[in-house]
Amino acid sequence: MDGMDYDPMAMDGDSEQPQVKISAVLQQADKTHVDFELSRTNLSFANSLRRVIQAEVPTIAIDLVEIEVNTSVLADEFIAHRLGLIPLDSKNVGDLNYSRDCDCEQYCEQCSVTLNLHAKCTSDDIMKVYASDLVTDGQHANSVGKPVINDPEGLGCLLAKLRMGQELRLTCIAKKGIAKEHAKWMPTSAVGFEYDPHNKLQHTDLWFENDTDPAKEWPKSKHAEWEDPPQEGEPFDYDAVPNRFYFEVEAAGNMEPDQIIQNGIRILQQKIGGLLKGLDPRKYGGEEEPDFDGPRSPDMNLDGSTTPWQDTGYQTAYGGGYGGGQTSYGGSQTSYGQGSQSSFGQDGQGSYGQGGGGSYGNMTAYGTTPYGQSSWQ
Amino acid sequence: MPGRTKKDEPTAQDTNMEDAPPSAQPEAEEVDTEDQEEVQEEEEIEPQRVRILPGSTDTAASFEFVDEGHTVGNALRYIIMKNPDVEFCAYSIPHPSEPKMNLRIQTYDGLAVDALKKGLADLQDICDVVTDEFTTKKDQFNAEHGIVR
């Protein structure tokens, strides 16, 4: 990295680092919005932030449903799908492992939350089953995995309706995941992303009918008053780049919106950190092609005399009757030790020919075994 | 037929011996592949997600990122292009159903790998700045508007 000590942030027009201006954190009962302006950065980074917020911030959602009894009119998979889409409290999602990374066999309390539902209609009236009827197993100290309930009645989403005698008994396993895998893990319901509200950069067409007023067809957004409108007869600035980005993050309810943004940036950093970590320990020498596939590394095979193909494979096959062959093989190994691969092949063949007689004439197979080619080379 | 099998018996050992090397081959290979799989499983603990594509030189290299996309690609492309030593940098996703992202870096001076490392480090710095900015501005806003969280 020598000779590359420039400041990337000082390279932008005004030599200042990225700036954030929070324009509104809507103080509603549900606290689901954060509006902010990200400036003095570039479109690529702002878009990365938007993408990561929408698709890669982990939340918890029901992933497995074990249905014991379902005599409702809805099919099992229909109910399972509805259950998956219920927002679950994910504020402490960091306490859970990803199920695939967990040490357990299938799932455990460290990587999942279990929710139970048992509802049976015993009256003539139609019974409604709500998300609030889901009971968490109580294995977690905090509220992680509890259904998010924001309505004044405290019922949550409607899951199903049951008639007299119909019953629903099931167990749900909620797991940690990201929206890249399934949209049920989305932490946001919508993310507004806007720049250049006056379209000075001509990044959009803003098409309109001939007989309509373009100003009416395309009403200015609320961010338009934050920026200077274009002057009459202003020449197009070919060097202009967008540098003010307006975000309107609307959380789905399972997480607070500012937590989503902070987690999003952290995840972006983790992604980059992971790539750096993968790059640093290995010194790339230009044309050097690291061996990603195939046997791991030569030294591993040489050291590990216990590797199966060196001991068992050969000794079972040749060990008994081929004492002479083995010694001659040993001899060829020394010739390999001297460093010439070809002499190994020749020696091996020749010594076999001498030791074992004519039947070994076609023993070229030795040259193509793992010994000669793939493992030690 | 029974006589024949009896006749074969004494030679059976010989043929077995003759057949031994070729018959041992698949056996050895089986062990081999099994072991490879084991090794690969071990590798999966920390998979290498960046590799240099063939045809690359010190100053002009193409990298292949596994499991990365536009999110990292575009931001990385931009920040590497900011480097005055970099002649060219671009990224592409060759096929939408392959989780791969290719990044090409050509430098005037210095190694392409160093430019990539520098770019990644710079991107992390930007993330740090934005996190700090967001946290302070959010706390400030909440304090001004009397929002308790």
From TrEMBL, chain A:
Residues 218-238, 279-377 are annotated as: Disordered. Residues 318-328, 347-360 have a biased composition (Gly residues). InterPro entries: DNA-dir_RNA_pol_30-40kDasu_CS, DNA-dir_RNA_pol_insert, DNA-dir_RNA_pol_RpoA/D/Rpb3, RBP11-like, RNAP_Rpo3/Rpb3/RPAC1, RNApol_insert_sf, Rpo3/RPB3_RNA_Pol_subunit. Residues 33-278 form the DNA-directed RNA polymerase RpoA/D/Rpb3-type domain. Belongs to the archaeal Rpo3/eukaryotic RPB3 RNA polymerase subunit family. PANTHER family: DNA-DIRECTED RNA POLYMERASE, DNA-DIRECTED RNA POLYMERASE II SUBUNIT RPB3. NCBIfam families: PRK00783.1 (NF001988). This is DNA-directed RNA polymerase RpoA/D/Rpb3-type domain-containing protein. It comes from Bionectria ochroleuca.
From TrEMBL, chain B:
InterPro entries: RBP11-like, RBP11-like_dimer, RNA_pol_Rpb11_13-16kDa_CS, RNAP_AC19, Rpo11-like. The keyword DNA-binding does not apply. It holds the Pfam family RNA_pol_L_2. It is found in: Nucleus. The keyword Protein biosynthesis does not apply. Residues 1-54 are annotated as: Disordered. Residues 1-10 have a biased composition (Basic and acidic residues). PANTHER family: DNA-DIRECTED RNA POLYMERASE I,II,III (PTHR13946), DNA-DIRECTED RNA POLYMERASES I AND III SUBUNIT RPAC2 (PTHR13946:SF28). This is DNA-directed RNA polymerase RBP11-like dimerisation domain-containing protein. It comes from Bionectria ochroleuca. The lineage of its organism: Eukaryota, Fungi, Dikarya, Ascomycota, Pezizomycotina.
